[in-house]
Design goal:
- The protein has one domain: Ribonuclease Z/Hydroxyacylglutathione hydrolase-like (Metallo-beta-lactamase, Chain A, 4-Layer Sandwich), CATH 3.60.15.
- Helices cover 21% and strands 28% of the residues.
- It has 7 helices and 14 strands.
Length: 258
């Protein structure tokens, strides 16, 4: 399984518009963060989790030419706004793009992209066509690949993380219910939300994320959904425990099955 971080930033991205802080002015490519998303290649399949506003740029940067499904964590715009750009895969693959999300997420997409979900008889030519799959807090399969949803909270909003075998992705999380934490045990590679060092109402802080990672003890943990208040990538990296790192856009790693 190969994981590629498409975006590791928070909802505004980094640099932030009109900000002159040292992070937003940094020339280190690791401090330049698009909105959060990952690409997963496993068992010959290609999946993306979330299509934020930077989706087009991310697909071009990573030269992704096959997409078998999109899986949505939740309905916030930094995770959904780029859905329209999926239509390139309609044209290339000559089929509807399968999208997976819980009912409120799909309902939100239907409102925001109403023109996509109209009857095909009256649909404007060339508009994105999708194949909708509703998911709940039960394991599901996409073309033979098993995926386990992890139901966490982003303040009071339910958000899905997803476990693919030995790898788990958890973005936009401020609390993990005990029963869901059990599902995380044995994860060997973890990507986890860590917005900033200061307390936040709807995201793990750096110290909270470290606490979760140390409780689970994966072989590697990478933090994502990072804001400019976190500090410079190079400086924060020096503060982290062994085997825990900040993710960055374009980071790629293999998860070898034991």
């Amino acid at each position: 399984m190969k994981i590629t971080v498409l975006g590791s930033g928070t909802s505004q991205g980094v640099p932030v518009i009109a900000c002159g802080c040292k992070v937003c002015k940094s020339l280190d490519y690791r401090d330049q963060r698009l909105r959060p998303s990952i690409h997963i290649q496993t068992q010959g399949k290609s999946f993306v989790i979330d299509t934020g506003p930077d989706f087009r740029q991310q697909m071009l940067r990573e030269n992704i030419k096959q997409l078998d499904a999109v899986i949505y964590t939740h309905q916030h715009k930094d995770h959904t706004a780029g859905m329209d750009d999926l239509r390139s895969f309609n044209f290339k693959q000559r089929q509807d793009v399968p999208i997976y999300g819980r009912v409120p997420v799909i309902e939100q997409l239907r409102r925001e992209f109403a023109y996509i979900f109209v009857d095909k008889a009256v649909k404007y030519p060339g508009v994105l066509s999708v194949e909708v799959h509703h998911i709940d807090n039960q394991p599901f399969e996409i073309e033979g690949v098993e995926i386990i949803p992890i139901d966490v909270f982003h303040y009071k909003l339910p958000v899905f993380g997803f476990r693919f075998g030995d790898f788990t992705y958890l973005t936009d999380v401020s609390s993990i219910p005990p029963a869901e934490f059990e599902k995380l045990k044995g994860t060997r590679y973890l990507i986890l939300d860590a917005l900033q060092k200061e307390e936040h109402i709807s995201h793990f802080t750096l110290s909270q994320a470290i606490e979760v990672a140390q409780a689970l003890k994966p072989e590697k943990t990478y933090f994502t959904h990072i804001g400019h208040r976190m500090g410079l990538h190079a400086e924060v990296e020096k503060e982290l425990p062994p085997n825990i790192h900040l993710a960055y856009d374009g980071l790629s790693f293999e998860v070898i099955k034991k």
